[in-house]
Amino acid sequence: MLEHTIQFKRTLWDKKGSWIPLTLQNLPSELRSRINPVAFTDGYEAVWLTPRVYDNQGNIHYLPWLDVEHPEKHHTSIQANIDTGKSLYLKLDSMGLANGLHILLSGNGLRFIWGFIVAPEWGRGFITLIKDSSSFPGIDHSPLTWANMWFRFLGYRGNQKQEDKNISNCHIHLLSHPRELLDLTEQQYLELVKGKPDYEICMQWADQILPVEYELPAPWKAILQQYDLMARLRTHIIKIGFPRPQKSAVKTDWEQIHAALNNLGIKVLRERTVYETTIFQLSSCPACGQTEGNPWLTESGILKCWRANNCPAGQDRYNQKSGLYFTGLYPQEWIEGYHFEEIEAESHTTEARGVVTIDEARKRIADVFREAGCNANK
Asked: What is the pLDDT of residue 323?
């Protein structure tokens, strides 16, 4: 069995010679044995970890720990960082990637953390994904793409041992559930991170969020497989545009949706808009009838529920056309007798740009598919 080693240090200023390699499999107990509770509470010690780990054969494995912040306002606006996190969360949820997510408030920005590791065979796809700022905005990929970068994982920021400039009376805080992010305000954020941390609670958080799975979840495999292929293509062609085929779309009938909610006695508690995305939070879930799943509807009428193990609106589903996963129920799946109308979207053509001909591009793409073990003619 492969062993995975992660680097640990206690302060911002610890030199390389004092870094401590720890076994990932025993990390929670290792941290308890190496952190002094009083020193941790006062900020003389904290938990600093590297998001890249190595197995005993020297291979790099990535921990999906993402620094999330507004690209321009990350140092000046906590609210901008919160809104960026909300937007990213909704994007991840739409692709079935939000299950198993934990969200830390770092004192200024956010950390999105999952409890599994990304093995070497998925590494290229993972790095390509987190660099895709147009699809996944707000991710600072430098801690994962640069060597010897650190995450201040847990600790107090009001001590010079942990800060170089912005010393502040706050600590890193774990949201009890990722869905809390959707209602989070800057004032609430500041209240949650204010003051010194509780050592025992922080160690319980470590038990909860540190990696326990070494098998990549199916939704992640599906998306990383596509991003790995994208990375292969980029090494063969510079840039080329293709005609976009006509796509059929479905018109959302909100009159039917409102009627269904009224018949069930379900109210829209609030409307939340994050940048260009709007969601509608419901008083209870039409699919399972419960309230604790924080149910909500998307602008397309897709029903979401956080009761992933007990509600069909919260379970991962596979889309055969895209090869990706998603969560939620379409209106026709949660409303009996729902009628929908298909509409034709306009066809768009993009200009081909690059330094190769179409025939040459096709040949190179076919080569990549063959390398990936696929049939390009399918």
From this structure: 75
3-state secondary structure of 122: helix
State the angle between helix axes of 218-234 and 358-371 in degrees (0 to 180), rounded to the nearest 10.
140
Helix axes 199-209, 27-34, angle to 10 degrees: 160
Angle at 199 between CA 66 and CA 306, to 5 degrees: 45
Distance between CA atoms of residues 60 and 5, nearest Å: 10
176-195 in b/e burial notation, b at 16+ Cβ within 10 A? eebbebbebeeeebeebbee
Cβ(122)–Cβ(224) below 8 Å: yes
Joined tokens for residue 219: 């939704």
Count CB atoms within 10 A of the CB of residue 340.
Answer: 15
Q: 120-130 vs 218-234: helix axis angle to the nearest 10? A: 80
- Is 8 within 8 Å of 31 (Cβ atoms)? yes
**135, pLDDT greater than 50:** yes
pLDDT at residue 191 in the model: 97
Q: Which two tokens mark 1?
A: 């069995």
3-state secondary structure of 265: coil
Distance CA 154, CA 208 (A): 13
Helices (H) and strands (E) in the chain, counts: 11, 21
E-strand stretches of 259-330:
268-274, 277-282, 296-297, 303-304, 316-319, 324-327
Any idea what DSSP says for residue 329? B
Contact 236, 364 (CB under 8 A): yes
Q: Is the dihedral of CA 337, 338, 341, 347 positive or negative?
A: negative
* Residue 26, token pair as written in the block: 């025993």
What is the arithmetic mean of pLDDT over 124-152?
Answer: 90
CB atoms near residue 310 (< 10 Å): 15
Over the stretch 326-361, which tens digit does the pLDDT of each residue have? 888 999 999 988 887 766 554 444 444 445 555 565
DSSP per-residue codes, 68-95: E--TTTTTT-HHHHHHHHHHHHHHHHHT
**pTM surpassing 0.85?**
no
Q: What pLDDT is attached to residue 172?
A: 97
What are 63's two structure tokens?
Answer: 């921990």
